DNA sequence: TCTTGATATGTCGAATTTCTAGGTGTAATA
DNA sequence: TATTACACCTAGAAATTCGACATATCAAGA
């Protein structure tokens, strides 16, 4: 995930969750995933292809995503990903985890004195 | 940083910020830093020694922390760290960055449909 | 007295993730 | 015709963290 400057350093481990979330909204192909992440995050996140495709393969290998070749609206071949049941569980688990973590970070950053 | 189960996977890149924040509250030695992080985060974060000490050396090498050997309250030798001016700037920058990132993640996770 | 646990520092190697940089090919547009 | 957008991919380097190990002091209790 590449930042305008140095946002990437913060996101290790988060990319998979974001991808799962995007794919959970409905089947999409890789290229579109990176576009949506960038768009929804208002350009804060820019997922590089060198991060994206390995992540997709990783998630597929773990059985969290499944892929299928289909045609895009523009009539091109692309690999469409969907979330498996296992992937949905994983996403829920990671989201709970994320809440807990950001809560804990907030506790520390919010400590005065 | 070690989790009860798998919280660590989420925090790559965050440890340095948390350490800077703890040290910014006043000089402390490494062992106490890990205890405070664990305590304030209510056991969500448990910083392993194999993560802590390399991180402290890293921050010192970057000129963000400075160290000094002193005695603890219990009369033992320990290396006390304080934040340099550069470290304070870095902390502020990382905190702003953190807000931006968590905001962007919230946008994505909060997207319905 | 001896052992255990807490305090306190550190290193090393493996694992994981991400980035940069490169590569392939098609279709539309200038 | 050349460039841009689309769409896939890999390889190597860099960075961070973890688990395990190693060392040493001190206090409390068996």
Main traits of this protein?
disordered N terminus; 113 residues; 14% strand; homodimer; three-stranded antiparallel sheet; elongated; DNA-binding; alpha+beta; 4 helices
Explain what the structure shows.
Two copies of one chain form a homodimer. Chain A has four helices and three strands, in the order αβααββα. Chain A has 113 residues and is α+β, with helices and mostly antiparallel strands. In chain A, strands 1-3-2 form a three-stranded antiparallel sheet. In chain A, β2 and β3 form a beta hairpin. Chain A is elongated, with a radius of gyration of 16 Å. Residues 2-7 of chain A have low confidence and may be disordered. The A-B interface holds A 6-7, 9-14, 17-18, 21-22, 25-26, 37, 40-42, 44-45, 95, 97-98, 100-105, 107-109, 111, 113 and B 6-7, 9-14, 17-18, 21-22, 25, 37, 40-42, 44-45, 95, 97-98, 100-105, 107-109, 111, 113. Chain A binds a DNA duplex (30 and 30 nucleotides) through residues 1-2, 8-9, 11-13, 15-16, 29-32, 48-51, 53-55, 57-58, 72, 74-79.
